[in-house]
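hey so u asked for the seq, here:
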Amino acid sequence: MLKTLFIVFAAIFCVAVGYRYTGSCGTGSSCTWGLENGKLTISGTGKMTKFNSAAEPTWMAYKGDITSLEVGNSIKNIGDYAFSGCSQLKSVSLGISVSEIGDHAFEKTGITSIKLFSHVKKISDYAFYKSKLTSAWIQSGKIGKFAFCGCSDLTSVTFSTLLYEIEDKAFQACTSLTSVSIPSTVSKIDTYAFADCTSLHTLEIGNGVQEIEEYAFSGCTSLESITFGHGLSTIEIATFADCKSLTNLSIPGSITSIGDQAFYGCSHLSSVEYFGTSDPGPYSYEVFTGCDLNNITVPSYYSS
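ran it, structure tokens below
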């Protein structure tokens, strides 16, 4: 009864402060929304609804009018599909209690810049898929599958040492991204995580990264410089395939396994140094096929 009265009071309050359109956006909570002059405000307390499609949020009837979003400090999450397809949405302010960005929450929006502070623990699958982001500053712990995939205007992304997981295809086809530095708190970079980032020039991998999964950086045709961390043990199948601008490579001694076609088609790769004490790929094939190697320094028993 008290919760019902609170929701009614919140809706009345929204009208009182001058919102043109209002409604509820929480299941079993007191989340409400109000829209006025292009600004959508999410207020109240608790969790937003996890919608099943982009058609469900009631503000979607006015999505062409939404240019900015403010989420109150007592809201716990951004619901699935909450703002999907809001192409005019340019700016977002998240309250300090938001701990999760839901699946598809901001996909295909017009947001150009985002700062996700440490209270946002998880960025879920497709969260910013094909949005108009140009920069992202991320203190979150987990970045889900396809989270920033297809953000073709994204030129810079900054990770903090709170990050521990980058899932499959999280940044695939971010074709304007120029540099990436993976912090040592990440232990594994998943499949296709940064594949087809065709403007990526430099890559730094922290000492805590132990494994780079299949195709993680494949098709990064502008990649010229890779700095591997000293904790890296495994480079999987085709991880750096078709990185055609790569000219030299230094592989740390911590490497114990290099997968098939790991550097396949790196057509300008001419020099490789390997500092290990054992053969990292005794059963691998075509590791350097399609490269232009003329200077390779490896243990005498290594088979390429």
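Confidence is low (pLDDT under 50) at residues 1-17. The longest strand covers residues 32-36.
lmk if thats what u needed
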